[in-house]
UniProtKB/TrEMBL annotation:
The lineage of its organism: Eukaryota, Metazoa, Ecdysozoa, Arthropoda, Hexapoda. One of its GO terms (molecular function) is alcohol-forming long-chain fatty acyl-CoA reductase activity. The chain crosses the membrane at residues 324-347. Catalyzes the reduction of fatty acyl-CoA to fatty alcohols. This is Fatty acyl-CoA reductase. It catalyses: a long-chain fatty acyl-CoA + 2 NADPH + 2 H(+) = a long-chain primary fatty alcohol + 2 NADP(+) + CoA.
């Protein structure tokens, strides 16, 4: 969802912040496509249609800067660096590797060292007002209740770098990850401390989104452009491909619409006040507006039945917290029906697909199991206070109070967005 997060933030800045002079975007060349072509390809998407129709001149504010957060000095040319130092007043650091299976050295280089490089540049900016670091609400998943505070380091960055330098083993990596699901969570926590320690010289804010999901309203209702996170789960339940989930029905799935996150990022930057410690905002719903797996499943199935979008008839969902029963139910309710469906397709002379889909879903489940089989309370009282401090007009322009989400409406538009933009 990181690409979507960036696009929503960019579109919102250009659409709703007319006083902005320029928006400088760090872009790397990819597979022979230069940075101007990459930006052009992005803004030509339907996602930016509102901006093209109503405020086409806003695109002229975009200034692509060739660079890469994984490279020394961000891979930025000296002349471009000079422009950034003189012109930029707010930095939004959204870039990261979100691969849950990423090797530790790669994750440290991109998520931690990349943040250090960005802070080094920000520190030299002549008019800097705010550095906004977009982290994750799961940077401290070993806590059942997650507050809007900085938590003590479980392991020091120096120790990790020392182990990486001497040649770290898989056993050592597992020990470092104790209580955490992946290198992404660990390196985002490390990066938070890098930001907090730099707060004295670089005024900073940390925003922690939970599970980022489709747009609630802007710029297109229900927009989603990838299968990451909750989208694959919701789609599979809707189509009758997933009928058993390894969780308890009362566990909370902490979804947060991507446009709510972008609005909070902008509001937090605009409302930043001088403080001794770095401000932390959890952008989450579990404490303020919880959605359980049971409630979510009912909403998805209601949509599925109403619009008849299922591949397998009579979709339903069972919950279990035991792995043995989960494996047995998955075999009976999902794998065997998929096998039978593929035989039917084969007899009709059509290409088989359902066992392949089940194999992909098995991988997705293994990646998400840590999050679906547990439940957290992620408090967002500071976020709510910030949202409620806005004027009535700004509340309409930058809605970011998680309490305002009406799940029945949102899940319906999420399902509709999946059908319209992914299953087209």
């Amino acid at each position: 969802m990181l690409k979507l997060q960036f696009q929503v933030l960019l579109e919102k800045l250009l659409y709703s912040c007319p006083k902005l002079d320029k928006v400088y975007i760090l872009v790397r060349e990819k597979k022979g496509v230069n940075i101007d072509q990459r930006i052009r390809s992005m803004i030509d998407q339907p996602f930016f249609s509102r901006l093209r129709t109503e405020r086409p001149q806003a695109f002229e504010k975009i200034v692509p800067i060739m660079g890469d957060i994984a490279e020394p000095r961000l891979g930025i040319k000296a002349e471009d660096e000079e422009i950034l130092i003189k012109k930029v007043s707010i930095v939004f650091h959204v870039a990261a590797t979100v691969n849950f299976k990423e090797k530790l050295d790669v994750a440290v280089n991109i998520n931690v060292a990349g943040t250090e490089r960005m802070l080094d540049l920000t520190r030299r900016m002549e008019n800097i007002k705010c550095f906004v670091y977009v982290s994750t609400a799961y940077s401290n998943p070993n806590r059942k209740v997650i507050e809007e505070v900085m938590y003590p380091e479980d392991v020091s960055l120096e120790k990790i770098r020392s182990l990486l330098k001497s040649g770290i083993t898989e056993k050592q990596v597992k020990k470092l990850l104790e209580g955490r699901p992946n290198t992404y969570s660990l390196t985002k926590a490390l990066a938070e401390h890098v930001v907090a320690k730099s707060h004295v010289s670089v005024p900073s804010i940390i925003v922690r989104p939970s599970i980022v999901s489709s747009t609630k309203k802007e710029p297109i209702i229900g927009w989603v452009d990838n299968w990451f996170g909750a989208t694959s789960l919701i789609t599979s339940v809707m189509k009758g491909l997933i009928r058993v989930i390894l969780t308890q029905p009362g566990n909370i799935l902490d979804l947060i619409p991507v446009d709510c996150v972008s609005n909070l990022i902008i509001v937090a930057a605009s409302k930043m006040e001088s403080s001794k410690d770095v401000a932390v905002y959890n952008c989450s719903t579990s404490a303020e507006n919880p959605l359980t797996f049971e409630s979510l499943s009912k909403l998805i199935l209601s949509y599925s039945y109403k619009h008849k979008v299922y591949d397998f008839p009579m979709p339903f969902v069972l919950f279990t917290r035991f792995k043995w029963s989960f494996s047995l139910l998955m075999l009976i309710l999902e794998t065997i029906p998929a096998y039978i469906a593929d035989i039917v397709l084969l007899l009709r002379g059509k290409k088989t697909r359902y066992l392949k889909i089940q194999a992909k879903l098995s991988f997705v489940r293994s990646v998400l199991e840590y999050f679906t089989s547990r439940s957290w309370i992620i408090r967002a009282s500071k976020t709510r206070a910030l949202a409620n401090s806005l004027s009535p007009s700004d509340k309409k322009i930058f809605p970011c109070d998680p309490k305002d989400i009406i799940w029945e409406e949102y899940i319906r538009t999420y399902c509709q967005g999946i059908r319209q933009f992914l299953l087209k």
